[in-house]
Amino acid sequence: MGARAEPDITGILRELSDGKRDSFNRLIPLVYDELRRIARRQLRAEREGHTLSATAVVHEAYLRLVDVRNADWRDRAHFFAVAARLMRRVLIDYARAKRRNKRGGQAIRVPLTEAEGIPTRHTEDLLNLDEALTRLAAKNERLCQVVECRCVVGLSVEETAVALGTSAATVKRDWVLARAWLNRELAANGRG
């Protein structure tokens, strides 16, 4: 009895690109574990005790992925890059809602002495980084995509090159430029 053949994720993604929406039901069981890995990786950068679980992040991203219309899915790396971007959006939306609540939204009011020690720095850091990435994307979309592939998805230089349809040398160069730009941008705004 031979080894079981690996499912053709790229083939299913092409079916989705061709408008076969029912292919999504076959895709999710094949990519679910990898999506959870990406979500756990993103949550590790969050403050300790974050109230969203990896499962919750994946499920929210799934709902957003289902709504992606007319996507031209190139391959599995492209799919995971888009999924990771959506997960980052889930965390950003969550952080914004928390900040809104912190500033009087639906928060329960407590004396300031009781609020000491509530971690807010990570939320601010995430929002500052997201704003910087948005500015970077406006200047150079590919640099932003390299950061997302490398940091958010956890792709290697070679995997990032495949996902973006470029060379590994270009990814390495872009990675250096993007990190330098982000460091300068965050430091200049007092958010380093």
Number of domains: 1
Low-confidence stretches: 1-5, 105-120
Shape: globular
Overall radius of gyration? 19 Å
Q: What is the number of helical segments per DSSP (H or I, 4+ residues)?
A: 8
What is the string of SSEs from the N terminus onward?
HHHHHHHH
**Average pLDDT:** 77
What class, by secondary structure content? mainly alpha
The first-to-last residue Cα distance is 56 Å
Counting DSSP E segments of at least 2 residues, the number of strands comes to 0
The portion of residues assigned to helices is 55-70%
Oligomer designation: single chain
* Main sheet specs: none
Strand content: under 5%
Structural features:
192 residues, mainly alpha, 8 helices, 69% helix, disordered N terminus
Q: How do the strands and helices of this protein lay out in sequence?
A:
Blueprint: H1 9-17, H2 23-44, H3 54-66, H4 76-102, H5 121-139, H6 141-153, H7 157-164, H8 168-188
Please provide a brief summary of the model:
With 192 residues, the protein is mostly helical. It contains eight helices and no strands.
Structural commentary:
The protein has 192 residues and is an all-alpha fold. It is built from eight helices and no strands. It has one domain (9-188). It has helices at residues 9-17, 23-44, 54-66, 76-102, 121-139, 141-153, 157-164, 168-188. Residues 1-5 and 105-120 have low confidence and may be disordered.
